[in-house]
Amino acid sequence: MISILLAASLIFTAEDADVAWETARTLVDECTPRDAGTVRGKIAAYKVLDMVSATGADAELDVFDAQTPRGKKRFHNVYSFLKFDPTNDEYVVIISHFDTKSGVACPGANDGGSTTGLLTGLANAVMRDRSIDGNLMLVWTDGEECMDYYGQNDGFWGSKRAVQEIKRRGIKVKAAICVDMLGDKDLKITIPKNSSRALAKIACYAAKKAGDEKLVSTIDDLVKDDHVAFLEAGIKSICLIDFEYGGAPGSGYWHTPEDTMDKLSKQSLLRSGRLLTGMLDVLFTKRSQSSSNGEQNKQNKNN
Length: 303
What we know:
By secondary structure, the protein is an alpha/beta fold. The chain has helices spanning 14-30, 39-53, 109-129, 157-169, 197-209, 227-232, 266-302, and strands at 60-68, 71-83, 90-97, 135-141, 172-180, 189-191, 216-218, 237-241.
């Protein structure tokens, strides 16, 4: 008899939501503002590095220079490689930015803070029970926000750099998931049109399986976010974003001094975390099924 082993489900718990909340709170309390290419942005990157390391996950800092509308600036990405499948070099990449909008004095509790915390909470979940049958690369980007207007040398410096590093290191990417503004008390996660259709289906399936079917919806809008650099590199990518943060899409508390911790909820962070782990469960299970079926086919041919 040949048994097919499926990936164990990774559980995002209330403890992990607490870690996510504390990460966001630390950024707001100790690193406001944290505009890209500034000293405070550098301080924020080191804070993220420390908070990720506190979960037991290995983390590294990637320091790089890039041209901006205000001359050459120095940026700081943070990476964590969580490799639990030694037979496979393929990774699922999850991305969040931690910087705030330039010149707005925005605390960035939701826009940057919530999902920076979400990734840290995810690292905590993985390191607690190590129950995944796959590999994760967590990426905290500096410089998602543009300084003036999004363009070739304005905005998305961190995600562009992360793609360059992935190529330089020869890393294979199964899928890239960009998360943005997912801690709002009134959480409504949308998937923009410029997301990979297969990953959108997985996100909707994961929400339904978690009993949270109304959490996720697709929209016809194109959204500029950190997933675009991955799409342009030919990598299947999705953006999970709540654009109705305190109002209509693109209005409300977004990019204002009102983006503060009182607008966030641990329950929303928990729901977002469970959506991510549900997506990973599908992505890693597919890998396990494929590998097991391949081994079964080999044995059948030999019989």
